[in-house]
Amino acid sequence: MVRKQIMSTVRKYLQETGDPKSTQQILHYVNNKLRNGTNARQLASLMPRIDNVERLEKVRVSSLGGGSHQTGVWQFKETEHETIVTITTVGIFEREQVNIVLNL
Questions:
Q1: What is the tens place of the pLDDT at every residue in 38-50?
Q2: Which residue spans within the chain are E strands per DSSP?
Q3: What does residue 50 show for φ and ψ, rounded to 5 degrees?
Q4: Residue 30 is part of a domain; what is its CATH number?
């Protein structure tokens, strides 16, 4: 249940902002938004499993102590869904079907 809540929160955050965010920025947002929050390891394992979220690149970040580590940059991926709607009209003597393609 907690994993689904984290995944939903991350998806909404990336969708609303529209900008690429690093794992650390997402972690900070999730910990401020949710009561229990999460840790970096759990978030890193959940990120690839979230629908419509893709990793753009890995970035090396240096810390104040002189070390460095890699972090991912993530973005919400817009997808087009094609829906075919069939409309059937029935007249007195004939029946007609029309297919309409909608890109949502």
A1: 999 999 999 999 9
A2: 21-22, 53-62, 68-76, 82-90, 95-103
A3: -80, 130
A4: 1.10.10.10
